[in-house]
Amino acid sequence: MTAYLVRRLLYAIPILIGVNLITFTLFFVVNTPDDMAHLHLGVKHVTPEAIVNWKRERGYDQPLVYNAGGEGIAKLTETILFNKSISLFAFRFGASDTGRDIGYDIRQRMWPSLAIALPTFLVGILVNITFAMLLAFFRATYIDVWGVVLCVIMMSISTLFYIIAGQYLIGKLWHLVPISGYDTGVDAIKFLVLPVLIGVVHGIGSGTRWYRTIFLEEINKDYVRTARAKGLSELRVLFRHVLQNALIPILTGAVVVIPSLFMGSLIMEAFFGIPGLGSYTINAINQQDFAVVRAMVFLGAVLYILGLIMTDIAYTLADPRVRFE
């Protein structure tokens, strides 16, 4: 098991390096520091002196990869590659193009993102698996057919419709919770109820169909027929055998959600005014703050790889064959 996890960790290193190099190429080779300065200062009526000062203030006036004027190790360290890209491996995100400490902003904004994403993730999995097990139990009946039809309809509806409808009905018409905003401590709950509810409802259609497909594949296998032949009830077969053997694909589907637990939901946070990492990224894109966007791209890659490693660990716990290999 240890060798298995070590291999997975070693696989992550070239992936992170590749993501970092691609990000560096896009932000500093394809889109040069001079282009960034023009975007921030304005294409028209911008002077060369203003461009030079803008790049100097943000550290973009250094050579890209190799500093021929430096001495010793400074030939490599006094470069944009080292200060803006390689430093990300030490989680030194530096300052944004507006002068704010990116690391401080991430530490402050990750908690609102977790507050909305974690309950949405946990409650969503519980609800989706429950509905999927219900459809699998009543498979090939009218309940199953109409349940699938309802899931397809829910999948076809845009997230914006759920957000607008939820804000209008629950927030504006019924006045149960605030439409948008955020607060700290216990008072934050009233601001999180609506986005969590909408996030769970929006994911029911796709999540239930996904888990239903997994359960139906397991139901048709030989071990399930053997369990039924031994006289086990259908409920025990579903919850004791089918659910346990379906853990591997369930864990695989959960991987893509793990980065969003920290990164936040871009649309949800923007509409509900939650100061999380999702709205932080949206604001950086709108303000053309390339330093923040680079940091969030790298952080998203790190979190996704950590999610894969956590899934591999869960595999070893759920499936003995993985430990054996």
Keyword list:
globular; 325 residues; MetI-like fold; mainly alpha
SSE layout and pairing:
Blueprint: H1 2-30, H2 33-41, H3 48-58, H4 74-77, H5 80-85, H6 102-137, H7 142-156, H8 159-173, H9 189-219, H10 222-229, H11 234-245, H12 247-255, H13 258-263, H14 266-272, H15 277-286, H16 290-318, H17 320-324
Walk me through what this model shows:
The structure is a single chain. The protein is mostly helical. The protein has 2 domains: 2-90, no CATH class; 106-324, MetI-like (MetI-like fold, Orthogonal Bundle), CATH 1.10.3720.10. The chain contains 17 helices and no strands. α6 (102-137) packs across α9.
**Percent of residues in β-strands:** under 5%
Distance between the termini: 8 Å
In the CATH scheme, the class of the largest domain would be Mainly Alpha
As for the number of domains, it is 2
Tell me roughly what share of residues is in helical segments. over 70%
What structural category characterises the helix and strand content? mainly alpha
Show unreliable segments.
Answer: none
Radius of gyration: 25 Å
> What summary fits the major beta sheet?
none
Overall CATH architecture of the largest domain: Orthogonal Bundle
The CATH topology of the largest domain corresponds to MetI-like fold
What's the overall average pLDDT, rounded? 87
CATH homologous superfamily label of the largest domain: MetI-like
What's the β-strand tally? 0
Which H/E pattern describes the elements? HHHHHHHHHHHHHHHHH
- Gross morphology is globular
